[in-house]
């Protein structure tokens, strides 16, 4: 049995230790993790419509050969041996000969001179021609004579008078990818016109009418060679190729998500022209295993005007461990005081909690030790290209524990400080996507098809918090063209 003094001393030590234990217990804040929220669909805006320019080479040599066939369009227009009469009864005769036609091209309705008496503009009435034009032209030499005045133009030492014979062919594509051509205009443009008597001024127009009518009839037969052509097989090859995922890196894939095809028009000079079509798509870059292809039959050609803009969208995953490391580096060692109490941050981390919610855990030591949880929603700042966490507040379990044990922390500027510091840099993710976008737009898809594009800008446009990672949506602006080999 202990002496009375020793017994009293033992009781005192036990009471002191008990009080110390209560003090330590009261100074520890360790709330449970916030309950995970149900999964939520990514609410970032979908990808925008983009256009992929695809040139399909069309050889119009057969049409040019037909236009130069003397059985369709004569090379000599000889009415010098017998007289003709105008509607006023004036007698006249003429002779003209042409060279071979050559082909050029205009992309819109061609402006043709309409000088009275020297040019005939012969538009088809009631026909809405396609929006692109192929033009043919040739040098023309001619002479005109009248009776009874025996006034001649272009005969003897004056031979020949010169002119240019022009034909415009409106050309387009049908919904089934067949070529469609019509004669849009035929005109004679004189470079040194005949100077006849005033009374005979209508003779030049009569001669032009005869020349253009003869040429127009031949061109109507020649365009049948164009109308027999079809580019569907070439377009179908491109369509089927673009349906497949394109691998950029071992875990990155470009999905073009093509939807329809529009016609942009013809370009080029000479018998071989480029029929440019636009494959309309919603391109995205996805990460992970190879996504499945989405087979779809070639749609009919859409006749609406086509855009030339091209965008690629990608949701770049950023691991929470990377974000946590950056946040901890910024916050470790920060001290907070309120009157005589203080805490010092020892660690910080961030993770996704479902429902597009982020959780920030802050560990600390000092007069109170433990950790607290903040929750909030990620928000993309498109001006600074950073992610802020909006609406930062204590989760409910943390709030209750702080109010019970350390209300001086709850009532301080601690939460405001964390909210201001909860800015996540996403520059490395954007830079990675910039490289992927550039690689996606400049590559060989197969031996026959390659892509050539430019990236004018890349910026973050949205953010979404998943349980596995923080996804930053970036969009690139630029242009994309396909080079298709062997499509002549």
Write a structural description.
The protein contains ten helices and 25 strands. With 488 residues, the chain is α+β, with helices and mostly antiparallel strands. The strands form four sheets. Strands 1, 17, 18, 19, 20, 21 and 22 form a seven-stranded mixed beta sheet that branches. β10 and β11 form a beta hairpin. α2 packs across α3. The radius of gyration is 41 Å and the shape is rod-shaped. The protein starts with a helix and ends with a strand.
The profile of the biggest β sheet is: 7 strands, mixed
- Helix percent reads 10-25%
Structural class: alpha+beta
Count of strand segments: 25
- What is the gyration radius calculated from CA atoms? 41 Å
Mean pLDDT: 81
Q: Which segments are poorly predicted (pLDDT under 50) over 5 or more consecutive residues?
A: 6-25, 106-130
Strand content: 35-45%
- Report how far the terminal alpha carbons are from each other: 113 Å
- Number of helices, where a helix is a run of at least 4 consecutive DSSP H or I residues: 10
Shape: rod-shaped
How would you briefly describe this protein structure?
By secondary structure, this protein is α+β, with helices and mostly antiparallel strands. The protein is about 25% helix and about 40% strand. It contains 10 helices and 25 strands.
Blueprint (SSEs and pairs):
Blueprint: H1 4-26, E1 28-29, E2 50-59, H2 61-67, E3 76-85, E4 91-98, E5 102-106, E6 132-147, E7 152-153, E8 161-173, E9 179-190, H3 202-222, H4 224-227, H5 232-242, E10 246-249, E11 252-255, E12 258-267, E13 272-281, E14 284-287, E15 301-302, E16 310-318, H6 320-331, E17 335-338, E18 341-352, E19 358-366, E20 369-381, E21 386-394, H7 396-405, H8 407-410, H9 414-421, E22 423-425, H10 427-441, E23 443-446, E24 449-465, E25 470-484
Parallel strand pairs: 1-20, 12-15, 14-16
Antiparallel strand pairs: 2-13, 3-4, 4-6, 5-6, 6-7, 6-8, 8-9, 10-11, 11-14, 12-13, 16-25, 17-18, 18-19, 19-20, 20-21, 21-22, 23-24, 24-25
Helix pairs in contact: 2-3
């Amino acid at each position: 049995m202990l002496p009375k003094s020793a017994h009293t001393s033992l009781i005192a030590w036990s009471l002191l230790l008990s009080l110390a234990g209560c003090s330590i217990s009261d100074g520890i804040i360790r709330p449970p993790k916030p309950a995970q929220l149900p999964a939520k669909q990514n609410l970032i805006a979908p990808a925008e419509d983009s256009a992929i320019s695809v040139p399909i080479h069309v050889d119009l040599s057969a049409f040019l050969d037909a236009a130069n066939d003397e059985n369709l369009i004569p090379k000599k227009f000889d009415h010098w041996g017998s007289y003709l009469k105008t509607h006023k009864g004036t007698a006249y005769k003429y002779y003209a000969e042409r060279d071979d036609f050559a082909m050029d091209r205009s992309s819109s309705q061609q402006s043709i001179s309409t000088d009275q008496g020297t040019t005939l503009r012969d538009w088809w009435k009631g026909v809405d021609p396609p929006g692109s034009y192929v033009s043919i032209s040739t040098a023309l030499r001619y002479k005109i004579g009248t009776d009874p005045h025996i006034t001649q133009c272009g005969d003897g030492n004056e031979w020949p008078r010169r002119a240019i014979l022009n034909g415009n062919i409106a050309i387009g594509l049908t919904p089934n990818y067949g070529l469609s051509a019509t004669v849009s205009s035929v005109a004679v443009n004189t470079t040194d016109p005949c100077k006849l008597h005033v009374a005979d001024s209508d003779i030049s127009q009569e001669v032009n009418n005869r020349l253009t009518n003869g040429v127009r009839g031949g061109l109507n037969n020649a365009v049948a060679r164009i109308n027999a052509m079809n580019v569907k097989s070439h377009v179908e090859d491109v369509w089927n190729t673009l349906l497949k995922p394109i691998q950029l890196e071992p875990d990155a894939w470009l999905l073009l998500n093509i939807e329809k095809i529009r016609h942009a028009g013809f370009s080029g000079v000479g018998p071989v022209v480029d029929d440019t079509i636009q494959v309309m798509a919603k391109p995205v870059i996805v990460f992970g295993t190879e996504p499945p292809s989405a087979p779809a039959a070639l749609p009919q050609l859409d006749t609406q005007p086509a855009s030339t803009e091209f965008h690629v969208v990608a949701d770049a995953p950023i691991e929470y461990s990377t974000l946590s490391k950056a946040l901890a580096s910024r916050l470790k060692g920060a001290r907070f005081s309120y009157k005589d109490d203080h805490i010092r941050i020892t660690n910080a981390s961030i993770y996704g909690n479902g429902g597009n919610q982020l959780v920030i855990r802050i560990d600390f030591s000092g007069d109170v030790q433990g950790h607290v949880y903040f929750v909030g929603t990620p928000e993309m700042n498109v001006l600074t290209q950073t992610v802020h966490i909006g609406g930062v507040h204590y989760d409910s379990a943390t709030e209750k524990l702080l109010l019970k044990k350390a209300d001086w922390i709850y009532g301080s500027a601690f939460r405001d400080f964390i909210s201001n510091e909860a800015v996540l840099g996403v520059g490395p993710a954007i830079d990675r996507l910039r490289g992927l976008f550039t690689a996606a737009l400049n590559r060989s898809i197969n031996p026959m098809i390659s892509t050539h594009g430019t990236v004018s800008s890349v910026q973050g446009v949205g953010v979404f918090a998943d349980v596995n990672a923080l996804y930053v949506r970036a969009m690139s602006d630029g242009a994309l063209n396909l080079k298709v080999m062997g499509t002549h």
